[in-house]
Amino acid sequence: MTIDTEHWNRRLAELAEKHDVPGATLGVLLDEEVSESAYGVLNARTGVETTTDSLFQIGSVSKVWTTTLVMQLVDEGKLQLDAPLVEVLPELRLSDPGVTAKVTMRHLLTHTSGIDGDVFTDTGRGDDCLEKYAAALADAAQNHPLEATWSYCNSGFSLAGRVVEKLTGGTWDAAVRERLVAPLGLTHTVTLPEEALLHRAAVGHVTHDGKQTVAPVWGIPRSAGPAGSIVSTVADLLKFARMHLDNGADVLSAASAAAMAEHQVELPDKHLLGDSWGLGWERAGWDGHRVIGHDGNTIGQAAFLRILPEKRLAVALLTNGGNGAKLYEELFREIFAELADVPVPHPLSPPSTPVDIDPAPYVGVYERASIRQEVSVGENGPVMRVSVTGAMAELLQEEPTDYPMVAVAPDLFVCQDPETGNWIPATFYQLPTGEKYVHFGARATPLCAS
């Protein structure tokens, strides 16, 4: 089977326009064939056209790149996944001394460290930004006990990036360039804004009160680089995916490439991202077919990468605003059906027949760094008010958002985003030790007051 590029050019344009996406690029890899498409503008203010060689922020897809760097160090015998990090980073200090002594690289790569995951402290633009960031984690809260649950953790990947620096003797940015970009022959992949300026680079667009505008900030702090600051094209992203399909090629050992895709931990919420996590990769079961991938979200930009190893199929989508999630959902559903005969599951949504669940047991305030979630019951039913706090509040300047909640099953609701209409699952659960949490937006947030 060959890829009908003209058809996917047309479908990208039609669906991007439908979902108010200003600009997007699409890349499809099927065995050895690659197809690229582009749509729209990189910047609504300037009207610069999107081309297939345009750079977009891939956001948290960067975490898989950082994991690949880590696994190279494992291959070289410089790091053990299950050894305490303090063996290679003796200066590490976390808020919980017990976690400091026991936390491992595997905990970081599988989001099970419990370190509060959304600490976006800006430690400057210097080459010592990750060293300073790692030191500042001494003040970060312990969101949950070590290994007690799974919660998406950006902070853990910044810390992993610092370990990469310690063991390579240079910056994380240099490690990306020297250990991934150069060996893979990537010509349009960078990590710093001054590097992105040398290319056609997208800016993000945000929507408030139904109006879409250019994002007030282009990128995230350099200290968050290992968690989400790689900027790339769909072609380069697919070269990275091909390397993993080729069992690491000359970049990674076959054993390490396989370990990254293997099951490591189950997810408390199996409806948003997938059913389980590997090392860096998210894992999903699509009608019995194992898919790996990752999403990325920065300020007004969103990225999506999915790989179906059994068919040697990889699909990448990069967007700069609008409802990128809906574009991904519809476009990938068509692509995987056409090229692999594999159905993409529909997102969880309200049941056709209302489910009678008493919301009272879930009422309360759930809070962690950067986010406060207040569940209450109003005239029209339960509502989750989400407020951005701390450094992220200063960066994003967003007002609190109210998400109407609809029961799906005991302990499971879907919450509707008022801007996009998208439904986001909210799973309420307890740890074996009794602490109550809500899992929303891929994060576990503890109950602080009921």
UniProtKB/TrEMBL annotation:
Keywords: Hydrolase. Pfam families: Beta-lactamase. It comes from the Bacteria. One of its GO terms (molecular function) is hydrolase activity. Residues 9-336 form the Beta-lactamase-related domain. This is Serine hydrolase. The lineage of its organism: Bacteria, Bacillati, Actinomycetota, Actinomycetes, Micromonosporales.
